[in-house]
Amino acid sequence: MGYTPEMKELIKKVEATRPARVERVKQGIQFPKLSLEEAERRLKTYHPDYKEEGRREFKIGPNKGDGHTYPDEVVDLFEAKSRIDPDIVDLSKPDYETDVLIIGGGGAGTTASLFAQENGMKVIIATKLRHGDANTIMAEGGIQSADSTKDSPYYHYLDIIGGGHFTNKPNLVKALTLDAPLIIQWLESLGMNFDKTPDGEMRLLAGGGTCRKRMHSCGDVTGAEIMRTIRDEARNRRDDITVLEYQPAVEIILDEDGKAAGALLYNMETEEYSIVKAKAVIVTTGGCGRLHIQGFATTNHYGATMDGIVMAYRCGVPHCFLYATQYHPTGAAYPEQNVGLLITEKMRTAGAQPVNIDGEEFTFPLEPRDVESANIIRECMDVGKGIPTPVGRIGVWLDTPMIDMLRGEGTVERDFPAKFIQFKRYGIDISKEPLLVYPTLHYQNGGVEANEWGETKIPGLFVAGEVLGGIHGENRLMGNSLLDINVYGRRAGIRASEYVKQGITLKKLTLEHVRAYHKELKEAGIETDRISPMLLPDYSNPEVRAKQLTARYFGTLR
Amino acid sequence: MTTTVAKDAMRKGDKTVIAEGTRMIPIYVMGKRYLVPETLTIQKAMEYAGYQFIRSCGCRGGICGACATVYRLEGDYKLYSGLACQTVVQPNMYLVQIPFFPANKVVYDIEKLPYDVTAIQTTYPETFRCVQCNACTKVCPMDLQVMDYMAAAIRGDIEAVAEMSRSCIMCGLCTSRCPAETNQYNMAELCRRLYGRYGQKKSQQVAKRVEEIKAGKYDPMIEELQSLPLEELKKRYEEREWEPVISEGWEPKETKYL
């Protein structure tokens, strides 16, 4: 296996220009950054968010007529019925009762559980797959925090808000930047392993759009290391933190006063529904890459299907910035088995450059992600200097062998162990041969509208992590999502505890909001048999499906 | 290179493109035969055959440990393993996925454990039953030297366990094969946390910055940015000073916001 002879021939052109490019990087010379105006023009022409086809407005709910269009794949989830008819659910006999219910067992949910527990709460985490099955575990590059002597939260704030096209909600950014060092210290105290110097100081790297080195990491398994650590800690507190796996929430339950009061869970294995009554609910369901917006491949986890935003929307909570989707500039485009696989930005911060079929640079390697993606799409679509794969995909080279040349033999294998093995399996040594990459769906950007404590407009309903919108505005920078799951997981956990401690009396539980939503669908003339939340994507084989003569698919699930 | 090829290439999503003329090969899922395209991973081949995953499927990118799979090839006595999302099918492969394997996870208080071998002795004493058979290393889909880190644990070298288990995805295959009934990956998780908590020194710079933030040093700077008109904010963004890739000895010129 490995590269085809044709591709190997093309790699020679990359090898030919490599020594000179390495020399220029050593002298601090890179392909120039685009100005703000040029970047904006580039985005409008090449970024998938700016295409008009395949998008439409919201016709119902709080975002109706908000002036934005959204990808059809997203709107489809909202123009859909609940998995369940509220009339057949008996809410008078809860199966579980708890102080705080957390929907989603990824990074944000687990952090929220730890802080709620520390504040005296009994916690239930209901999660769709296993505890820790989330985008958190797949995040590779690092977590930002402005703690170096050459850096400060001032620059962190400036980078974030510029990267988000100045659309971010300022108070959310402020909390993110000022809490960051606190979170790093907390992770240290839990025993997370960081890449450090022998005297304990962080080995920092830059990221796309960051003017200073502020990326803290653990090899290329930073997210996995965070998830393993906080999950282990949650398991150590199992007297107070109960985890229900393979049992996602499908609707949030309110009480008659309109406060959050729990959720309806669905056991995907036994197909049984159950009711959790809770004094506060924190939604931490993550992102939406598995919707495959505009047919793009994704770096996301199997369960990333936007469930939380759909459930909150049915309660009347608006979303924001969902019109902007993040395409990671460098998803793998070859070999076919690895397509969509995240190639961490840390490769570019370590010195790997994107180059075209002639081995030429065409972009500053560390533009904000949207601009970098637009530049790669332009190089392939318009300039025509992409590299075709045997099955008709296209990509540009990411010249990873530069890393060893810049930082010493063995750096790639040491600093990117997971990526190294993922390509070695297919006969590609990424310390000697470049990778083929193309933008891939990576991050939701937008989400549920909430304040800097994760509070939504519904009393007792909180959000944290990727499901919370506004922190990153229209575009997130690398290393700020591992940060935000912790910052906002902590904040939501603490604030939910305070909310419960003031003494919450729940009235009669209700799903009236779901009935009202169904009515609104009907009144808007939306006739559909779509079901949401989606829970899992549909990867069924149409040929097999045509022969499943007695099978019943409910939404995407059989 | 034509634009039509490229546009088409964008629309393929997660669907693996099966090139024309791809050979179909037999695989045996839990003993049952299916014909699948030879280029697919085990995961996609099972979906091609008609399976819908609830378990045994996670990140689909080789890092979460949900899709551990063991297999034998016809006519070969050896037992092989891999992640279903990363392993390409082979003709006459007999496979089964192990979505879960019971393992001993000990509850402990990280604040109360010592940083030496007794931490392992009191939590995972079964570690010391290891017979050095190497079955764990052979089965590890991440190619970790599991038996070697077990030996390091027995010696009390917690740092070595942490380093050698860094890429562990906690799939549980090592535990499934252990004749001494040890729980390698949970023991390694304990060691990584002990190493991070006690073995690695704390960052003084992070601690200093936390104190500065608590003292409110940066509040006025952020508030200054929040109060700027958009044009001025954009100007400051555009005029940021950039730390170079190789930055030893570099100091920023602007220091009033540090």
Identify the overall geometry of chain A: globular
Straight-line distance between termini of chain A: 36 Å
**Largest binding interface between chains:** A-B, 118 and 100 residues
Put simply, the count of helices of chain B is 11
Helical amount among residues of chain A, as a percent range? 25-40%
| Low-confidence regions of chain A | none
* Name of the CATH first level of the largest domain in chain A: Alpha Beta
Task: Work out the strand percent of chain B.
Answer: 5-15%
Q: Mean pLDDT of chain A, rounded to whole units? A: 95
Strand fraction of chain A equals 15-25%
Which term fits the overall shape of chain B?
flat
- Reported by name, the CATH topology of the largest domain in chain A is FAD/NAD(P)-binding domain
What class would the helix/strand composition of chain A place it in?
alpha+beta
Helix content bin of chain B: 25-40%
Low-confidence stretches of chain B: 1-11
Structural classification of chain B: alpha+beta
Helical run tally of chain A:
17
CATH architecture of the largest domain in chain A: 3-Layer(bba) Sandwich
**Number of β-strand runs of chain A:** 19
Short description:
The complex is a heterodimer of chains A (558) and B (258). With 558 residues, chain A is α+β, with helices and mostly antiparallel strands.
